[in-house]
What does this fold into?
Amino acid sequence: MTVAAVDKILLIFFHWLQGYFTLAGRAFARIFRRPFYYRECAIQFDKLGFSSLFICTLTGLFSGMVMALQSLIQLKPFAATSYVGGMVAVTMIKELGPVLAALMVAGRVGSAITAELGTMVVTEQVDAMRVEGTDIIKRLVVPRLIAMVMALPLLTIVTDLVSVFGGYVMASGYNINPVMYISGLPQFMLFQDLIEGVVKPSVFGVIIAITACYVGLNTKGGAAGVGAAAKQAVVLSSVLILVCDFFMAKIFLVFRG
Amino acid sequence: MTSSDSIHIERLCYSIGGRKILQDFDFHLERGVNRTILGVSGAGKTTILKLLLGLLEPDSGKVFIGNLCITGLPESQFMQQRKRIAIVFQGGALFDSMTVGENVGYRLFEEGRLSQTEIATIVLEKLGFVGVEAALNLYPAELSGGMKKRVAIARALAADPDYIFFDEPTTGLDPIGVHNICNLIQRLQAEGKTTLMVTHDLATAFSTSQQFTFLHKARILFEGSEEEMKASSIPEVCEFLEPTDRSLFYDVHTTYDKQPEQVESI
It folds into this structure.
């Protein structure tokens, strides 16, 4: 690869990075500025958040079940099956719950946001809005950002609760009663874990919304461009979620001492 | 020659991916003079409209709305000036998620100065003007191409602009639809609106404008009235007005060559 090619790739990358963070900064700056699109926020919350409830419930249930199943097999030789509740809870609440819920939502919602905005761009609806005097970031990005930041932690809580229930369903097959299952939770969990379990999805919500909006608003071409943009948004947000999860885990470990 | 009642471009250059769309481009739109920009597909006609509205940022040169140079300014700083202009996009660009009524009243809802009743009255009046008041509660997906263009015109009229830009207003319409749109544009002009149209439909252009600008290879090749254009001896203009077999290759060379100068040697 020639120097010129590397130079070009780096230029595109930094241009992209600049655009991404500029959009994020502008969106956050506009959250508290008039006009407030309450109705749009509510619509987006329903479209992006509430409608993802089923897929998150399903993800949580089966993740909890498989987590409990694998743990029980490992714990049985040590007669420690009573700890399964704590193990499922701590793993799901701290790590898997936020990440799995975010990945599910990124696939379902991220692609939908990008496709919607991308279509608006290629059919000149975004240009029409600008000519009508609308601040595009305020009208299109901020409501989706608010909706995602509010919805994803709630969806994650549901995912966590359902996964703990799923874990119990499996544990009950190993003669573990509900009291024994629940009493194992405090032995593994700290209050900080609960905070971590809510902060992470909020950040993931920002990543999904900003990535999907940025890619959507920069869509070029026709139908093929919209398709490519939707795919790009899902891949990008998924990777960013996983990378960000690692760094956030490290930061929380520092605070844990 | 800036004036508070004109829109103009000074020595503007614009390119996409290395292809020059406009080069050292000067353009003046005076209030009251209805103008059409003509040129083959890909000549940069729509780009001019978008540059005049500040939707695109030029490589160099300046765009003025009235006395204000909007080039390089954030949108929030020239929003007031831009509100004097409305545009009817080629496909209508109606907002899919809104009804026809919400589309037409969009700018008024956004501004928040008028009550719901006042906005509803204006919306019905504008829809009545373009003859589609029955479509008030329909969504854009339920409209025909011609109706979409009419609703787009109603939306453009809602905020009472001084200038209305039309991007290929009659493309894809049947003869009756074309006649209706031309008729609407003439009625708008009679009401004192200044129109700027880009099209390659000569019949529409000649029936709705007094002045014509012909674009070719990123530059203006001709400016003048209908009579002057028809009497022009510029080969490209003659070719455009009365295409011959040579035109089969004309469009391809003009539209896609990276360096327009090379066309001469082909």
Notes: Chain A has a mean pLDDT of 91. The interface with chain B takes residues 35, 119-120, 123-125, 127-135 of chain A (CB under 8 Å). The longest helix of chain A spans residues 84-122. Residues 3-256 of chain A form one domain.
